[in-house]
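Carboxypeptidase Q: structure tokens wanted.
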Amino acid sequence: MSIMLKNMLLGAGAALLLAAPAAQAQARKKAKPAGKPAVYATAARPDRTDSLAMRRLFDEALLRGESYENLRYLTGTIGPRLSGSPQAQQAVEWGKATMEKAGFDRVYLQEVMVPHWVRGGKERGEIVGNKDKGIKVPVCALGGSVGTGGKLKAGVVEVHSLEEVKNLPDEAVKGKFVFYNRPFNDALIEPGSAYGGAVDQRAMGAIEAAKRGAVGALVRSMTSSRDDFPHTGTMRYNETVPKVPGAALSTNAADRLSLLLKANPELQFELEMECTTLPDEKSYNVVGEIKGSKFPNEIITVGGHLDSWDLAQGAHDDGTGCVQSMEALRLLRAAGFKPERTIRAVLFMNEENGNRGGIEYARLAQQNKEFHVAAIESDGGGFTPRGFTLEAEPATVAKIARWAPLFRPYHAADMLPGHSGTDIEPLEAAVHPKALIGYKCDSQRYFDIHHTAADTFDKVNRRELELGGAGMASLIYLLSKYGL
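Answer:
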């Protein structure tokens, strides 16, 4: 899942939004995006017909849903799917074949060049104290890191922010590892907010360390869980600054290193990693469509990202989002609905370390002068559905919020402003959809396994997964029927 989760604190609620006439008036003055039709249906309040339609979708999902078995194949047979890998290509072929088998009106690929980073075979970390006595600790390379070129041994300076590194004297940093040890803020109710408050040290830590002459960056894993699973994730480099290795320590290892540093500030850390970056590889977004019966030129996109990190199967991040997106279209067909607007499922490539697939999808949408009513992304895991987060003008948020009562029987009626998804965000500048929407599920356990070897199929509950797909299909049904 990517990178910064934003707008998590926007929770004023639909009631407050309805009381903002000035904002709504401004929204109505917004220029029409290219391709918008002259006559456009208005979102309506829910009625019993809609309630019965949604019940059909949920019945189909719970009694005959295919998401869980599709996920079993994707994770168990194909496995980790880092961009540029042979498994990523296998996943592309699987996604295309699965959508063709489902009978969508059109299935096709969008070519995109993606980065190809390889972890390599050896990852080893050791705390070295007096008389070279060592304690091995769990580590993993951060995505995109350079290797160590053999064993790299140096002293350690512990910090809790990027700003702290900037303010340290030269002798405290030069020739050492900078150890970023800022934990999650566990007082925050939304784990995504805690992630957003800590992830800058992973993304930018190596750059700030290298600026001060450090030999590498060690980063506390992005989780509140205390365990021995190091969490990988994207890090960045600046071409004007030397590239130094970046590695994640498990939370238990970080706690241990911090404790030992207090007892012996002169201890050292030995790191060995063989990761490298190869030339870009050709890959693809996978796209499946059901053509709209009344407004075929109006598009509703739903998607997840097909790539995953290489440590595990990428079940919750983001295999669940992929199978739910395909399932949403299948559910509509199986329940006998003919969407009035074109519905498009997209399996995006390269969200984890570049977002090349999302950028290319938006570029092509702009090139083809497409009109997107809305785009929905599932990239927060396949846990129990809670509702949707919305990036839209206040008046549009208010329209969507009118449908909340329909989702209450399924405990998924949250419809408030918030981050939508990394893959669909480029659409905002390219084609100005009426709304960008994120599938929201119970995220309390998500960062326990996020970007780790523990993100496996057995962590996914079948009913939770199928309920999420039905919720997404239900929102698509309403968007297709009423527009925005």
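The longest helix spans residues 462-482. The domain at 14-117+279-482 is CATH 3.40.630.10 (Aminopeptidase).

Cheers.
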